[in-house]
């Protein structure tokens, strides 16, 4: 039962990892908009503002995903340790 839970959580961590990659991609798009705003004088302020918001949101999402992955890995390790201890006892 514990091993099944560890497997399910490992699958969830893979999914969160994909979301983290997507969040970094969104942040990169925001950075490209900022660059476009710096280069183009006509749309400077709107591009920089929108780019900054998108970059900030993408980076915040990536950080949250990363925290979830780290905490999830620790949790999986605890579950596997508990399963090993149960195996030794029983």
Describe this structure in words.
With 90 residues, this protein is mostly helical. The chain has one domain. The protein is 93% helix and 0% strand. The chain contains two helices and no strands. It has helices spanning 2-39, 44-89. Helix 1 packs antiparallel against helix 2 (44-89). The two termini are 14 Å apart. The mean pLDDT is 93.
Radius of gyration: 20 Å
> H/E element string?
HH
Strand fraction band?
under 5%
Name the average pLDDT.
Answer: 93
**Tell me, what's the shape?**
rod-shaped
Whole-number count of domains:
1
**How many angstroms separate the termini?**
14 Å
Task: Look at the helices and sheets and give the structural class.
Answer: mainly alpha
Number of strands: 0
Helicity level: over 70%
- Biggest beta-sheet profile: none
Which segments are poorly predicted (pLDDT under 50) over 5 or more consecutive residues?
A: none
Please work out how many helical segments DSSP would assign.
2
């Amino acid at each position: 039962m514990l091993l099944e839970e560890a497997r399910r959580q490992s699958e969830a961590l893979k999914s969160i990892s994909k979301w983290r990659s997507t969040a970094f991609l969104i942040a990169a798009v925001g950075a490209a908009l900022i660059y476009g705003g710096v280069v183009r004088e006509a749309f400077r302020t709107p591009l920089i503002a929108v780019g900054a918001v998108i970059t900030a949101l993408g980076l915040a999402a990536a950080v949250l995903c990363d925290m979830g992955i780290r905490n999830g890995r620790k949790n999986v390790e605890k579950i596997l340790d508990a399963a090993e201890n149960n195996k030794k006892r029983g």
